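User: My instructor asked us to take a sequence, write out its structure as tokens, and then describe one feature of it. I'm not sure where to start. Here is the sequence I was given:
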Amino acid sequence: MSLNLTRFCSTLQRALLKLDASGPEGFEGFIRDAFVEATGISQRIQKSGTQGGVDAFSDGSDDQIAAGIEAKRYRETTTLALDDLKKKLFDAARRSGNPIELWILAASKEVSADDAGALEQIGDELGIGVLVLDWRSRNDVFAPLPFLLALAPNTVERVLGRKLGSSIRQIADLPEFEVRRADFLHKIKHPGLGRIFAAHAVRSRIGQTLQTRTDSKSRLQNNVDLCAPDCIWAPRDNECAAIEEWSKAPDAPPVCAVLGDEGAGKTWLLFDWWQRESERDPSRLFVWFAARDITSGSLADVLGQRLPNGCSCQVSPRRFGPSVFCAGAKQL
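Assistant: Let's start with the prediction itself. The structure tokens for your sequence are:
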């Protein structure tokens, strides 16, 4: 017998509203378990009072994205206080210790487009991804929250009963299921989450630095006024093409060393290449640092510390790729 999707969504929502709002056995725990089953990303329920803007949290171990879930069991008549959600998001972004890369709001009622947009804008400013998993008033089974549950049929059956578990398994038979599943998981597991704001901040700062010789000397210890209106220099197309080829080759060595005598133009070459690449892909994150900045710890930690001042991006250092330049070395 075919599943009546509208009636099923309504029944599923009523079952959710019967759960306790909080705790591992309530709505918070149910969403945590469903998320783990659907994504494979581990989550721990946070203690009450020390939640830091989330009810459940993954610490990003095993190279998984560090995601926090704020679970809200709302009835249709319950007012969704945007200011309260903003405070939760701010608290999550300012967590001490393990940073969050993705903040997820799981709500049992529809979140307005204006409220979702406001939260996403704040996430951009704070440098963390924001994903709203809500219900829809029209009982759409492919709305974010019911679809999350469709990816976790074992959790649904264990918590809400065999009948709902059997029904939700039929969602997988719908023709658009696999495409929707791939898109849903991409939004959650995308490694670039939380990085775009940092990339734009770096791009803006370096662009300003290259405008004047004084600024570039102060920040880069090199007179690289590449973007000054009166600057005359010869672009190095061949060398830039060689660096680009290295940076995009999947089997290339993880480190590219640009060597040459002092004053040969090594730094100018890299900023020439940077200008071209940042125009082609504005969301690509570049981090510039001097070799003397590496005194201890891992290279990824050094990169994470070299983001611009005022950039509160919570990108985990593990998200930096292996493509690292070693520039400024003199030829021996």
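For the description part of your assignment, you could build on this observation: The beta strands are 44-45, 56-57, 67-72, 102-107, 129-133, 255-259, 324-329. Try explaining in your own words what that tells you about the chain.
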